[in-house]
Each structure stands twice: as C-alpha cells, then as structure tokens.
Design goal:
With 467 residues, this protein is mainly beta. 6% of the residues lie in helices and 35% in strands.
C-alpha cells in the first residue's frame, strides 16, 4: 500500500526547485547593446558587451579631430568603460584649423591667417611688385584642407614706346615688357643733319615713353658708290667734326679725294666705324689736325692723305690696313712714334718721310717701303718684328740718331742705301744663327756715310740711345 505524501513536503520541494532555477539564471552572463553614433543619424558601430570593460573605438572624420563619446545628456565616457545597460553614445568633433601664410615675391611674410577646414580664405591684401601686374595666388583658396604657404603670381606690365622723327612722324610704335629694351629703328635721315642718338635710354623700359632723335647739323656732301656713301665735300667750319656711320640708311665707307684738303679750321675728326677707304689727299695740309685714329675696317689709305699735317701728333693705324700710299704722313713733323700693323702688304714711297720728331717705331708689316723713314732725324728706337721680310731702299736713309738696330731672321732682302747717312749707326744685330746670312745680305747692299758692325745679339740687348 502506497505511502501518502504530505502537502507540506510538496511545498518544500517546490521552493527548492524554484530557488535552483533562480540561482542558475543569475549565474548566466548578461549582454548589453552599445550603439555608437557619429551624428544624430549616422551609426558608426553597434556592439554587444558583457560585464567586462570594453575600449571605446576612435572614429575618424576628414577635417575634424575626435573629441570623445557622449550620451544624450552630455556626459563624456572614458576611453574604456563597463556597461550595465543598453547605451547609445554620440561622437563629438572639433573642426581642424589650418594656417595660410602669404608671402611676397621675395618670400617675405605678408600675413598669416587661421582658417577652419573646408572654409575659404579671401586675402584682404595683394602683393605689389613694381613693373608687374598681380594676377593671383599660386594655390586655390576656396576650400582650405591643409596648411598652406602661398606665393603671388604676376605678369609683366607692358609699356608703349613710340619713336618720333624730328617732324613728329611716328617712326616706330612698340609694346615693350617691363625691364626689357626697346628696339632702335634704323638710323634716320635728315638732309643737312646727322643722327647722333635717341634722347632717352632704350634699355630697361619702366614706363610709357615717347622718344625723339637728336641730330647734329653738318655740312657734308655725299656720293653713292661701291654699295655705300663717300664723303665728297665738307662745307662747314667746325673745329671738331664727327662723320656719321650711316647716310640714308647705308654705311659711309669712304672719304673721297681732297675732301678736307687745306681745311685750316679742322682740329679733330672722328671717322665712321664703317669706313673702308681714305682716298688721296683727303686731309692734305690740315695744319691744325692733332690726332687721327684709323677705324678697324679701313683697308687702304691713298697718296698724301695726311701729308703736311704739321700739328699731327698721334696716329693709330687700322689692324686691317692692307695698302698705304705714297707719302701719306710725310712732313707730319710732330709725330713721335708709330706702329705699322702686320696686315700691311703694300707700302708706297716715303710714307713717313721728313717726320723729323719721330723717335720710336714698331714695325710688324711684311715690307718697309722705299724711303719709309727718310730723314727722320730723331729716330733712335726701331723695333722690327719677325713678321717683316723686306727693308726697301732708302728706308732709314739719313736717320742720323739711329745708334743700333736689330734685324730678325725673317729678313730676306734689304735695298740699297737702306741705312745710308745713318752716321751714328754702330751695330746691326741679329740672332747668332742668322749672323752669316745677314752679313751676306748686307755685303750686297750699297751704303754711304755709314759704318756699322754686324754682331750677334739678343733682341733685348738692342736700342742703345745716344745723345
């Protein structure tokens, strides 16, 4: 017979079972939902967390710095937290701030501005630079997303340069960038005048300019031939004359026969750099002319071109001179020294005949002409270089002050009476290896009223002056 269970016992067991269920359910880990919002609408992440602490994520947002996570009541949460309830957190941001540094064209700082990410920056200043137009900055400043160093950009300003003729006619109208040079028009022609220069500097243009010519009134007569102009007459009375390089836009290449002959006013003259030829008697007996520089392009000087210019003291010959005519400088009593360039291949008679004050000559020319220095009674120093090959007859005739002379090995011929009447000539010197050859040459040369010894001597041992 089954034993009957009592009611109190049943209740006892029910309590035990219920307690066990509650105990077991309490031992199970609880989970919470944490939602991270980067804005009110945008979910960054949603995670399940237990009772352990978790490290909060660090989101990134372009142009902003993350400030931290906050709940809806504005409480900031630490970087690591233990959640006990479902939670929604909101990210807060601080906009990034960038610097914009403006420099001038010399990289000097104009100003430094601070600008929030994504904003634009409009400088209130521009960078001034003389002669240039400011056209902007070298960076786009509409949306700032980083620190910037900004430099100005320019373009050169242009200026108008107008060249006028003497009557106001426009000769040239040019647009010239700042700091550059205007281009000079061709030389201008004006009857009775020579163009000298423009009245303003053409280089480094810095403003609009109106430029006018400067003329000098002259009294030249011109004649066209051989592709250029010759001066054929001079009617003026100026003491100091400048001959133009151009006439009617063509070069002046010649001084015609007798153009300045017996001009007793002329004291100085500047010959054109374009000059090629000086014809015979061009300056004959210009007795007040004191100096002459033969331009580099001159190839020929005609007979008697400067003869009897009694006041002529300084003569500089062209390095391109090929032909020099008869007695070109004869009777020019004031010339004291001369250099004959190597370019000379033909020399007329008596080029420096009777230049009684001539003291020193340097000779590079291939030939020393007939009677070249005849009666140059003061000539005591003659330097003959090894480009010289021929000493013509009577070349140093009656050079009574000449004491000794060095003849290089290049000499192949000496004319009769080259040293006649050189009564003080004691030594004719040459290099030792040329001694015998020179003795042979001079043995066949006629001389009168001179006695000299032919010796071996270095060139530097030459030129013993005598009183």
């Amino acid at each position: 017979m089954m034993e009957k269970v009592k009611y109190p016992d049943i209740m006892k067991w029910l309590v035990v079972i219920l307690f066990s269920i509650l105990f077991l359910s309490g031992c199970k880990s609880r989970e919470y939902t944490v939602t991270f919002m980067t804005s009110q609408e945008d979910v960054y992440n949603q995670i399940k967390v237990g009772t352990n602490s978790v490290k909060l994520p660090v989101p990134a947002k372009k142009g902003y710095d993350f400030s931290g996570w906050y709940d809806s009541e504005g409480n900031k949460y630490p970087e690591e937290y233990t959640f006990t309830v479902d939670t929604t957190l909101f990210a807060r941001w601080a906009v990034k701030v960038f610097s914009v540094t403006l420099l001038d064209y010399n990289d000097n700082i104009i100003t430094v501005a601070t600008v929030e990410y994504g904003d634009s920056y409009e400088p209130s200043v521009i960078s001034f630079r003389k002669g240039y137009e400011f056209i902007g900055w070298d960076h786009d400043l509409n949306i700032i997303t980083e620190d910037l160093v900004v430099r100005p950009e320019y373009r050169k300003q242009n200026y108008r340069v107008v060249f006028l003729d003497y009557d106001g006619t426009i000769v040239s109208d040019q647009i010239v960038p700042y700091g550059e040079a205007a281009q000079s028009p061709p030389p201008l022609h004006r009857d009775g005048y020579v163009f000298i220069e423009w009245d303003q500097e053409l280089y480094n243009v810095e403003a609009d300019m109106t430029i006018q010519p400067i003329y000098e009134k002259v009294d030249f007569e011109f004649s066209f031939r051989d592709g250029g102009y010759y001066i054929t007459n001079y009617y003026g009375d100026n003491k100091h004359v400048i001959i133009p390089d151009y006439y009617r836009n063509l070069p002046v290449i010649g001084i015609a026969k007798s153009t300045f002959e017996k001009n007793y006013n002329l004291e100085s003259i500047i010959l054109p750099t374009s000059l090629i030829t000086i014809e015979e008697r061009a300056f004959y007996n210009c007795k007040l002319l004191t100096s002459i520089g033969i331009p580099d392009k001159v190839e020929a000087i005609g007979n008697y071109a400067f003869a009897d210019c009694w006041s002529l003291q300084e003569v500089i010959l062209s390095s391109s001179l090929l032909r020099i005519g008869e007695r070109v400088f004869s009777g020019c009593d004031m010339i004291e020294e001369i250099v004959l360039p190597e370019s000379i291949i033909a020399m007329g008679d008596g080029v420096f005949e009777n230049c009684s004050r001539m003291k020193r000559v340097e000779i590079y020319s291939q030939i020393i002409g007939i009677q070249a220095f005849l009666s140059c009674s003061s000539l005591g120093e003659v330097i003959i270089y090894d480009s010289v090959q021929v000493i013509s007859s009577h070349a140093f005739y009656s050079c009574s002050r000449l004491n000794n002379i060095y003849l290089p090995v290049s000499i192949i011929a000496i004319g009769d009476h080259a040293f006649s009447w050189c009564r003080n000539l004691q030594y004719v010197c040459t290099d030792a290896e040329n001694l015998e050859n020179l003795q042979t040459i001079l043995t066949n040369v006629s001389h009168i009223y001179t006695e000299f010894e032919i010796i071996a001597s270095k060139k530097s041992e030459n030129f013993i002056d005598i009183d």
